Amino acid sequence: MSNTAKFDLDGTVYEFPTLEGCEGEKAIDISTLRSKTGYITLDDGYGNTGSCSSAITFIDGDKGILRYRGIPIEELAEKSTFIEVAYLLIYGHLPKRSEMRKFSDMLTENQILHENMKHHFEGFPDHSHPMAMLSSMINASSCFYPGLMGPASRDRFDKHAARLISQVRTIAAFSYRKSRGLPITYPKPAYKYTPNFLHMMFSEPYAEYEPKVEVLRALDLIFLLHADHEQNCSTSTVRMVASSQANLFASAAAGVCALWGPLHGGANQAVIEMLQEIHTSGDDGRRFIEEAKDKNSGKRLMGFGHRVYRNYDPRAKIIKGACDALFKALKISDPLLEIAQRLEDAALHDSYFVERKLYPNVDFYSGIIMRAIGIPTEMFTVLFAIGRMPGWIANFKEIIEDPKSRINRPRQVYVGPTLSHYVPMAEREE
Ligand code: SDX
User: Fold this and answer.
1) Is there a smaller number of Cβ atoms within 10 Å at the N or the C end of the chain?
2) Contacts of residue 196, Cβ cutoff 8 Å, sequence gap at least 6
3) Ligand 1 test: best mutation among 225, 226, 306, 359, most atoms within 8 Å of CB?
């Protein structure tokens, strides 16, 4: 690989250094491009632009590879847990026993919201979307932690990170209960992360929710598989906000907002709505596939395609397997799963999808598992946010610990009106 890139601009040749990541990612460092040449680059959607160097997650989209701190997602899915992976992503290594105990204790100690937060829940109208509640409650909860506004310190960071990971789950469960007019259920100190979430979601004053071990494993796997995914839209948003030295909760609340979009984390809800539309219309899926190929239909095969994966999303493969295992264990079936499998099979043999290298992504089957667990559709993206929180926190930490970090401030190519002047109202047309 050459260690410089040469640009011939207006008859002058400029040289810029190139660099290569530890997995062969090649880049041209254009940090002096504008000062040297007066030019900027333009890259709509940042498809070719690296915003940072990061040591957290590696994806090879052509080979369908995903690794958290170098460990393949398949190994973590089989052998690890969501909370152990959260520690790995944030602190960069698998925790020792003592570190895992301390981390788990911090999550337990920080799982309760400030009681005054309940007034915020009271203010939301019934049937408010839980993603709206989640983003506002994460930001609101920062009001109760003045320490957040101070300069970042390691101890302070550790406590705020544990608080955010633990409380995002509590806020999510409380939002669900509020949206259904149900009394909120407090977490139990004796319960671990995922069982406590299901307890807060589904236990009633008259009956404890007793999750099956297969359900616990499936939900913990869903969280684990969503834990990070390099510079996706919401993680880049978290880094953007963190680059201004805003606090961790403000950065995470911004991440929730970006994740909500149906092209991103909102796709898991959109997939189920799509499958339900196909199911109720009596279509066997073929009509919908044709519509998804027609640009004028305004429809897309939700859960398919990815900016980085030009191969099967490894998480989709794992979730599909977990889906089959859960349905067998619970002895249940779901017509939407059969429709999803038919759609996948049809699309993977259709030249439109094959030519564009569109494969199932993490959202295609995740909603089917969450439905089987009893999670309501409007909560799917909230669970994506719970899973993604450790990845957002790890990226936030990478920024605050980088002495070279500077505020993110992209340039633009201006295409608006050239110089014009103010026209007083009296001189304007009626
Ligand atoms: C996530 O970035 C991440 O890492 C995200 C994520 C994470 O973990 O953080 O992996 C999570 O967001 C997964 C993606 C969830 N979104 C969806 O499932 C929504 C459906 N997918 C698409 O909207 C789309 O594939 C995107 C948004 C995922 C990617 O969009 P791109 O990279 O901008 O691709 P594009 O829109 O430019 O599409 C390229 C071509 C176009 O056709 P042509 O103009 O070349 O003829 O493929 C077509 C698109 O019309 N296309 C689809 C399609 N996805 C792309 N056509 C039909 N159905 C689809 N799903």
Assistant:
1) C
2) 111, 169, 187, 188
3) 306
Nearest to 380 by CA among 231, 223, 210: 223
pLDDT band at 407 (very low <50, low <70, confident <90, very high): very high
Q: How many A from CA of 334 to the centre of ligand 1? A: 26
Q: Is the CB of 163 under 6 A from ligand 1?
A: no
The answer to whether the beta carbons of residues 23 and 57 sit under 8 Å apart is no
Smallest CA-to-CA distance from 230 within 43, 23, 56 is with 56
Measured on CA atoms in the order 33, 34, 39, 41, is the torsion positive or negative?
A: positive
Residues 6+ apart with CB under 8 A from 276: 336
How far is the centre of ligand 1, averaged over its atoms, from the C-alpha of 300 (Å)?
A: 9
Q: How far is the CA of 305 from the centre of ligand 1 (A)?
A: 4
Ligand 1 pocket, 264 CB below 6 A? yes
pLDDT in tens, 309-353: 999 999 999 999 999 999 999 999 999 999 999 999 999 999 999
Q: What is the pLDDT of residues 53-91, one digit of tens each?
A: 999 999 999 999 999 999 999 999 999 999 999 999 999
For the CA of 303, the closest atom of ligand 1 is 18
Asked if 67 and 39 count as a contact pair (C-beta separation under 8 A), the reply is no
Residues annotated catalytic, as ranges:
306, 363
| Ligand 1 pocket check for 387: Cβ under 6 Å | no
Residue 263 beta carbon below 6 angstroms from any ligand 1 atom: yes
| 368: confidence class by pLDDT, cuts 50, 70, 90 | very high
Q: At what angle do helices 213-225 and 193-202 cross, to 10 degrees?
A: 110
**Binding site membership of 357 for ligand 1 (Cβ less than 6 Å):** no
In the chain, the amino acid numbered 193 is Y
Q: Is 361 in the pocket of ligand 1 (CB under 6 A)?
A: yes
Amino acid identity at 310: R
Contact of 379 with 321, CB cutoff 8 Å: no
